[in-house]
UniProtKB/TrEMBL annotation, chain A:
Top-level taxonomy: Bacteria, Pseudomonadati, Pseudomonadota, Betaproteobacteria, Rhodocyclales
Organism (species): Azospira restricta
The protein's name: Aspartyl/glutamyl-tRNA(Asn/Gln) amidotransferase subunit C
Protein task: Allows the formation of correctly charged Asn-tRNA(Asn) or Gln-tRNA(Gln) through the transamidation of misacylated Asp-tRNA(Asn) or Glu-tRNA(Gln) in organisms which lack either or both of asparaginyl-tRNA or glutaminyl-tRNA synthetases. The reaction takes place in the presence of glutamine and ATP through an activated phospho-Asp-tRNA(Asn) or phospho-Glu-tRNA(Gln).
Catalytic activity field: L-glutamyl-tRNA(Gln) + L-glutamine + ATP + H2O = L-glutaminyl-tRNA(Gln) + L-glutamate + ADP + phosphate + H(+); L-aspartyl-tRNA(Asn) + L-glutamine + ATP + H2O = L-asparaginyl-tRNA(Asn) + L-glutamate + ADP + phosphate + 2 H(+)
Single GO MF annotation: glutaminyl-tRNA synthase (glutamine-hydrolyzing) activity
Automatic annotation (TrEMBL), chain B:
GO biological process: translation
GO CC annotations, alphabetized: glutamyl-tRNA(Gln) amidotransferase complex
EC category: ligase
Key words, A-Z: ATP-binding, Ligase, Nucleotide-binding, Protein biosynthesis
Amidase domain mapped to chain residues: 22-468
Role noted for this protein: Allows the formation of correctly charged Gln-tRNA(Gln) through the transamidation of misacylated Glu-tRNA(Gln) in organisms which lack glutaminyl-tRNA synthetase. The reaction takes place in the presence of glutamine and ATP through an activated gamma-phospho-Glu-tRNA(Gln).
Name the record gives this protein: Glutamyl-tRNA(Gln) amidotransferase subunit A
Family in the record: Belongs to the amidase family. GatA subfamily.
PROSITE patterns recorded: AMIDASES
Length: 95, 487
């Protein structure tokens, strides 16, 4: 399977990455090389094999419903670019 | 005392032969002299390090010291450290000063170790050569025209150049073991879940694991004692009793200390694809193990050949998800000019991430997208299960698996940078261990054309103490691990 330039542009948009025409062309070559490597695994018979999403069979733990962290607002806000009245100022995200 | 092991330094500090402040200053001076060329550290803060050293000296004077108290240790720049710039090798976090400590950092702090600085790394730990860092490539102290390996290349180069006695690393597909091999160090990737990932910047969450990098297996054991343990802040941390990873190292085991040990040699590790010089040194090491009393059996890992393919679906898939948080809003770099919200996301991520990170985000986004999820992501997870089962079957016949760590010695800067597939194949012997979640180690086993070669040791789940002992016995019989690069 080979990707097309159009697919690279579409995936870049889905990933929210600006990509120039030159970058798209270079990326297309690299991705096709990588997908040739990846394609090899399609031939493996995995019928009936349960997917392994994690290295250990762990279950999410529950914790007591109580406050464990102290209030460190000042320390956390010290590294923020902009704050006002104890709130973070961010660009407009709801249009 | 430059070049001494942690064990030797611990004894010197306990015996008041040197203070922690003096020892830290010795290493800071060496960093000031060598780092402009090697580029192993991205952040050094002498004032902070020396303040920690003073506190350690107070503990030593009060008789409240442990084996690592007062010892300077370099920290990979993937670990958040309070008050320290924490960049993960990326422009995206170029100015991020962490307001909290990762659990690993907190544990070293509690042990009284001194944070010597933050080491350079491939951006977001994506790379096998340490050339993808926003802060420039790290150079291999054995030959500065060559790479140190990645992604913990800064940590490896720092220890190899004797700028630090030891360092932390992280290993998602081989990022501790491969640079350890290329720089003549001992490096251990523990069983997944043994060391907390809390405060360690995420790349591929089901694979990432932190571990020690040092000159000897004994030092790795000392470090792992400080690093390991259950952490309720990390939902993947395993609830297990605390272990002493040094417990088997002190015993006097006689002339044949490894009698009864069965070493599995996977035929897939010993076929084509490995440089002749590397293979010869690995075979020499296995012959040495036979002299130490071990016996060898052939085993098979038939699905290992698909490990790289499965890894380059699973790891980018997880990375594309983990890195979605870098959007210019919540934290990190933000593009200075943009037209609207969508434009801000796209420009921020395009400017903040380097080429390799973008490439993996694109792979991950593609394999998780509608219509491709089953064919790529689920298939890769099924292959992951087959690979893990291969190891389970192999460990029915042996106690430890051995083979090369890397198919080649340190390659030239820029040599593989233009061909991602060639770069990805650098990790062909290490990746399967991460997919299965097993512990793996690399130890020095000789030189090919003047460059270090690593022997890989793979253990069953939670067999870190055994791995460290098997490595230690070899290091008692050989001196490859004590060789240092010429200056």
């Amino acid at each position: 399977m080979s990707l097309t330039l159009e697919q690279v542009r579409r995936v870049a948009h889905l990933a929210r990455l600006d990509i120039s025409e030159t970058e798209a062309e270079t990326t297309l070559g690299h991705l096709n090389g990588i997908f040739t490597l990846i394609e090899a695994m399609q031939a493996v018979d995995t019928k009936g094999i349960e997917p392994m999403a994690h290295a250990q069979d762990v279950a999410q733990r529950l914790r007591d419903d109580r406050v464990t962290e102290e209030n460190r607002r000042a320390a956390y806000q010290a590294v923020a670019p902009e704050t006002e009245a104890g709130l973070y100022l961010v660009p407009k995200v709801i249009e | 005392m430059i070049g001494w092991t942690l064990k030797q330094l611990g004894a010197a500090l306990a015996g008041k032969d040197i203070s922690s402040v003096e020892l830290t200053q010795l290493h800071l001076d060496r960093i000031a002299r060598l780092n402009p060329e090697i580029n192993a550290f991205v952040t050094v803060d002498a004032e902070k390090s020396l303040a920690q050293a003073q506190a350690a000296d107070a503990r030593l004077a009060a008789g409240d010291a442990g084996p690592l108290t007062g010892i300077p240790i370099a920290q990979k720049d993937i670990f958040c450290a309070q008050g320290w710039r924490t960049t993960c090798g990326s422009r995206m976090l170029g100015n991020f000063v962490s307001p909290y400590d990762a659990t690993v950092i907190a544990k070293f702090d509690a042990a009284g170790a001194v944070n010597l600085g933050k080491t350079n790394m491939d951006e977001f730990a994506m790379g096998s050569s340490n050339e993808t860092s926003y802060f420039g490539p790290v150079k291999n102290p054995w030959d500065t025209q060559r790479v140190p390996g990645g992604s913990s290349g800064g940590s490896a180069a720092a220890v190899a150049a004797l700028m630090a006695p030891a360092a932390t690393g992280t290993d998602t597909g081989g990022s501790i073991r491969q640079p350890a091999a290329l720089c003549n160090l001992s490096g251990l990737k523990p069983t997944y879940g043994v060391v907390s990932r809390w405060g360690m910047i995420a790349f591929a969450s089901s694979l990432d694991q932190a571990g020690p990098m040092a000159r000897t297996a004994e030092d790795c054991a000392l470090m792992l004692n400080a690093m390991a343990g259950f952490d309720d802040k990390d939902s993947t941390s395993l609830e297990r009793p605390t272990e002493d990873y040094c417990r088997d190292l002190a015993a006097n085991a006689g002339e044949k200390p490894l009698s009864g040990l069965k070493i599995g040699l996977p035929k897939e590790f010993f076929g084509d694809g490995c440089d002749a010089g590397v293979m010869a040194r690995v075979q020499d090491a296995i012959a040495e193990y036979r002299k130490l009393g071990a016996e060898t059996v052939e085993v098979s890992l038939p699905n290992m050949q698909h490990g790289v393919a499965a890894y380059y679906v699973i790891a980018p898939a997880e990375a594309s998800s983990n890195l979605s948080r870098y959007d210019g809003v919540r934290y990190g770099y933000r593009a200075p000019e943009y037209a609207d919200l969508d434009d801000m996301y796209c420009k921020t991520r395009a400017q903040g991430f380097g080429a390799e990170v973008k490439r993996r985000i694109l792979i991950g986004t593609y394999v998780l997208s509608h219509g491709y999820y089953d064919a790529y992501y689920l298939q890769a997870q099924r292959i992951r299960r087959l690979i893990a089962q291969d190891f389970v079957d192999a460990f029915k016949r042996c106690d430890v698996i051995m083979g090369p760590t890397s198919p080649c010695t340190a390659f030239g800067l820029g040599e593989k940078a233009a061909d991602p597939v060639q770069m990805y194949l650098s990790d062909i012997y290490t990746i399967a261990v991460n997919l299965a979640g097993l512990p793996g180690m690399s130890i020095p086993c000789g030189f090919a054309d003047g460059l270090p070669v690593g022997l890989q040791l793979i253990g069953d789940y939670f067999a870190e103490a055994r791995l460290l002992n098997v490595a230690h016995r070899y290091q008692q019989a050989t001196d490859w691990h004590l060789r240092t690069p010429a200056e």
